[in-house]
Amino acid sequence: MMIWIIIGMAVVTAIPRFLPAFIINQAKFPKWVDRWLNAIPYAALGALIFPGIVSVKPEAPQIGVIAALFAILLAWLNVNIIGVVLGAIVAVFLMTL
């Protein structure tokens, strides 16, 4: 009996997660809506990352900002994402010595 309850809860949880993905793929939006929807992941990522940047070293928030600028430079130079992350980590490490 318990397994059916777990399966039912999984289905009820999965439906609201998957249904919008299928609806969005079928819908045609105006170009400005598509541009706006494409910008959401970047805005959400920025909102998640920015607090960590300024709190790397609370008494010296400029360290996180400089490391973030270094990471942006590496990304602009088309460095692999692992290289960008490692570059930012090394930059913070070197500035906190």
UniProtKB/TrEMBL annotation:
Record-annotated membrane-spanning stretches: 6-24, 36-54, 66-94
InterPro entries (UniProt xref): Brnchd-chn_aa_trnsp_AzlD
Keyword annotations: Membrane, Transmembrane, Transmembrane helix
Pfam families xref list: AzlD
Protein name per UniProt: AzlD domain-containing protein
